[in-house]
From TrEMBL, chain A:
Keywords assigned by UniProt, alphabetized: Cell membrane, Membrane, Transmembrane, Transmembrane helix
Species this protein is from: Psychrosphaera saromensis
Protein's recorded name: Uncharacterized protein
Subcellular location: Cell membrane
GO CC entries: plasma membrane
Matching InterPro entries: ABC-4/HrtB_transporter (IPR051125), ABC3_permease_C (IPR003838), MacB_PCD (IPR025857)
Membrane topology per record: Multi-pass membrane protein
Length: 419, 255
């Protein structure tokens, strides 16, 4: 009966109640969205690269190097010479070193030039290897340079199949005015989805990059019987954007980093992805805190509004309180009734906000992954939502104290007779 | 059927004259004794007595009824209702006492508008703790049906929203709700003021039938002096906020 009265009382004032729910839900949505996006972005960034101990590039900010080389956000301002790459690769503590070349795109999707070793050594998530869902990796020689391996999202969104021919463009924007149309790349493989920027990337060999930027038509387009020829893998490559490095033992990471940073022939820097990510989080943390603070203040203001709405309704509800008192309701019952109404309003608002975050998350996820390389998996209920939900319920009960105490006092003072 | 003997008659008479409301030097103020709003040296109401209470606004009628139902407590004096010294009861016990022993009918707008008629009636039973067990629930349903029929209301009215009823229907539902816990005291605060003459007579007829059947003590507050003749006793509250005299049937003492 207690719950029935509270719910029916709210239904009786449904316009006010819905407006209150809408305003609380909207402010809760902002809070939940900020929290979810920041935590999902962290997870997304964190899972993009694992197993890479160092990233070597020309001297720049470590965040710039990390974002450009791993997340395809921004540009690498300078390059690493092929000789330097060879020197790094031959360091005694270096287990593997994979060069990557960036700067081209296809219909807005970035193109990554690399060696075939990339598919073996690059790990994401919890040290998961890349998987080729269809076809195979490109062939590591200059003769087969015009081959491309697509990320899962590129294949899906552009509807590409194996053996499809495509032209790559210069620059990384969606619209490019320079197309390398003298070289037609053939799709030889499609990667399985990883939920990282790899899905949005087209992978070609370094020879492919060179062929694309030179006027020479790749060798294989002139010859059908290519088995007869011998080719070196990177015969024309003289520079790369960055080098991903794996060391033989963890303790060697700092040693190799120092060696790279002290490199005499060329101004290079080596960054540890985890450390760079931490710097990114520290930079984001203050912004996140400001956003969270604003969201909490907005929520506080809205809950205050709900409290005011209930307080204002007390005058018109004095007869209702009087009837309840006459029937034997204690002032505590009246107090709890108001708090229950607050609880019901907040619970419905929380649910609406969760649906909003989930629904808008579903719409925003592809946009975020396409434009920012941030992969979010919006969940309906997670630990953050649970904690925020509990916090908000507690906060709303505290805010509800004002009208509830008012009703309690009203119940004590109101007698049987209301004229 | 056995005949009643003399001792039964004595018990019956003494029960009839049992004082179920006793005021003795009861004083009340809203500001801790500084301004007295009620001073009742002595007043009793017998079981089954139908008392008409009248008085001008501010004469203390509301305070009197609030004291009787345990909503407020007197500053001093002794107030005994149904043998209970109300001053000794805790707030919780007073609420329970009111739910179980006292029925109230207001002037108008007696019902909670957003609840159904059935819920409005069940609310009274809920506070009196009579909706818990299944046997009690069955008894309750039976009793509601009986009362609804007695008051010439259709059973289908139970599912209707209280706000959809006419004033006359609302007042009759209010009687059902007030009587559902079989209270020993029924307080009716100007219940006929919003009714037309025809509805007023029908309402009073039904009310009296019901309180007589249940031997319920009725305290009826009204300004309508034409109703006085139907009551056993009449109380006019003085302008000094003191019950000066209780007049017996028709002997109303007007100040």
């Amino acid at each position: 009966m207690f719950i029935k009265i509270a719910i029916k009382s709210l239904i009786n004032r449904k316009t006010t109640a819905w407006l209150t729910i809408l305003s609380v839900a909207t402010s809760l949505f902002v809070l939940l969205a900020v929290k979810q996006i920041s935590s999902q972005a962290k997870t997304s960034f964190g899972r993009t690269v694992s197993g890479v101990d160092l990233i070597v590039g020309a001297r720049t900010g470590q965040l710039n190097l990390l974002l450009a080389s791993v997340f395809r956000i921004g540009y690498v301002s300078n390059s690493v010479s092929w000789d330097s790459y060879q020197t790094i690769k031959n360091q005694k503590y270096v287990k593997w070193a994979v060069p990557i070349s960036l700067g081209d795109s296809h219909k807005g999707y970035p193109v990554l030039g690399t060696t075939v070793q990339y598919f073996d050594v690059f790990k994401y998530g919890n040290k998961q290897s890349l998987e080729i869902a269809q076809g195979k990796a490109f062939t590591p020689d200059a003769f087969q340079s015009a081959q491309v391996v697509l990320g899962a999202a590129v294949a899906e969104k552009l509807g590409y199949q194996l053996d499809q021919k495509l032209v790559l463009s210069h620059g990384v924007g969606v619209t490019s005015f320079t197309h390398h149309d003298h070289v037609k790349f053939t799709v030889v493989g499609i990667l399985a989805a990883t939920g990282t920027p790899i899905d949005q990337t087209l992978h070609i060999s370094l020879s492919g990059i060179e062929a694309m930027h030179s006027d020479v038509v790749p060798h294989h387009e002139e010859h059908e019987e290519h088995e007869e020829h011998e080719h070196s893998a990177h015969e024309n490559v003289d520079k790369v954007s960055a080098v991903l490095v794996g060391v033989k033992a963890k303790f060697a990471t700092l040693y190799v980093q120092k060696a790279v940073n002290d490199f005499k022939n060329e101004p290079l820097m080596a960054i540890i992805p985890g450390v760079a990510l931490t710097e990114l989080w520290q930079m984001m943390a203050s912004m996140e805190k400001v956003l969270l603070l604003i969201s909490i203040l907005v929520l506080f203001a809205t809950l205050l509004g709900m409290s005011t709405m209930l307080l204002a309704s007390m005058r018109e509800r004095s007869r209702e309180i009087s009837i309840l008192r006459a029937l034997g309701a204690s002032p505590l019952f009246i107090f709890c009734l108001i708090e229950l109404e607050v609880l019901v309003l907040t619970l419905i608002s929380l649910f609406v906000a969760m649906v909003m975050v989930w629904g808008i998350g579903l719409i925003a996820a592809p946009v975020l992954s396409s434009y920012y390389g941030i992969f979010i998996e919006v969940s309906f209920l997670n630990q953050d939502t649970l904690y925020i939900g509990l916090g908000v319920l507690l906060m709303s009960l505290l805010m509800g104290l004002l009208p509830a105490i008012n009703a309690y006092k009203n119940a004590l003072q109101t007698g049987l007779l209301i004229k | 059927m056995p005949e009643k003997n003399v001792s039964d008659l004595i018990v019956s008479n003494s029960a009839k004259l049992e004082e179920i409301i006793q005021f003795s030097n009861v004083r009340f103020s809203y500001d801790r004794g500084q301004t007295l709003v009620l001073d009742i040296p002595k007043w009793q109401v017998h079981r089954g007595q139908h008392t008409f209470i009248s008085g001008v606004s501010g004469s203390g009628k509301s305070t009197l009824l609030n004291l009787l139902s345990g909503i407020t407590a007197p500053d001093s004096g002794e107030l005994l209702v149904l043998g209970q010294r109300l001053n000794d009861l805790s707030a919780r016990a007073l609420d329970r006492f009111r739910a179980q022993k006292v029925g109230v009918i207001f002037q108008q707008l007696n019902l909670i508008p957003y609840l159904s008629v059935l819920d409005n009636i069940l609310l009274a039973a809920y506070f009196a703790n009579k909706t818990q067990k299944s046997k009690l629930k069955t008894d309750l349903q039976h009793k509601i049906q009986q009362l609804i029929e007695k008051l010439n209301l259709p059973i289908s009215i139970l599912s209707r929203q209280a706000s959809e009823l006419s004033v006359g229907q609302q007042q009759r539902v209010a009687i059902v709700r007030a009587m559902i816990n079989e209270p020993e005291i029924l307080i009716a605060d100007e219940p006929t003021s919003a009714l037309d003459q025809q509805s007023k007579s029908a309402f009073l007829k039904l009310l009296f039938e019901l309180v007589k059947t249940t031997n319920c003590t009725l305290l009826f507050v009204s300004h309508d002096q034409s109703l006085v003749e139907q009551f056993d006793s009449v109380v006019e509250m003085s302008t000094l906020n003191q019950i000066a005299e209780q007049a017996e049937n028709g002997a109303l003492n007007v100040y």
